What does this fold into?
Amino acid sequence: MVHCLNYQMWMGGITDHLTLEATGAMVVPFGVGSTDLLIETIRQVGVNAISCTPSYPAVLEKTLNEHFPQLDPRDLGLKLGLFGGEAGLDDPAFRQRIRDTWGMEPRNANYGVSDVLSNFAAQCEFDTRLHFLAADVLYPELIDPDSGEPLALVTGAEGELVLTHLQRDCQPLVRFRSGDIIAVDSTEPCECGCEGFRFRVVGRSDDMVVVRGLNLFPSMVAAVINGFPELSGNYRIPLDTRPPYDYLPLAVELAANVTADTSADGGLAELLERAIKKNLGAAARVSLQPAASFELTEGKTRRVLRNYQ
Ligand SMILES: [Zn+2]
It folds into this structure.
């Protein structure tokens, strides 16, 4: 296992490393950056699993294209991808894209709130949704992110996750607002035996964009974009003015070797606008960008750009 999350001044790096070792894995502590060296390391050491953010495989792919053109992503021999740190891992199209490109199985492996506890939810072999695994040490609550009012933590509930330490001698946190909006899918025990509630991370409360009363998160937009093979999957939501918004501004990147079709019907941009209207109910204004327009990041990718004062 090569571990490609940040080890520097961030507790997630070392705690995830120790968690991986506790499973019996041999862990190469790589950290972020130096993608060329990472590719050499994976090949020389015979690494077959990677732990990173879900947006990092795109960086690896680009580096392979530019510096190792003789290698296909599958040639690296990665069989398992343990992902965490960003929303969108429940999206079947994203998961299929990882399988098709890399030949590796994606796993929704670690969810945590580093201020509170680095790693306390993951999928199992039966269900890709996150299972809450920390009932003995954390008390979870849900609140309405706008009003702060408590919400019942029941199947179908959606709200901001709030956490309280039950077992900590030093600096216990009481009702810490995680900033993560989660959707509770089930409070019944899973087939795997876990009795914790199962949930999806819908997005960050500070990433929420309200368009005509609809709460939109980048992960919802990504799910629509990932249905278009002509697009790379990379995108930004550039907000040039303060709310309110009548439509969602969206800049999307074309896949490699695809050029914009500006023929009848407005082409690809209009198709995507229609798909967003149909799936999310919101109007969008799409601008197509050439392949590789957006910077690829090693850590968490900022999708919503608030370009106003
Ligand atoms: Zn399970």
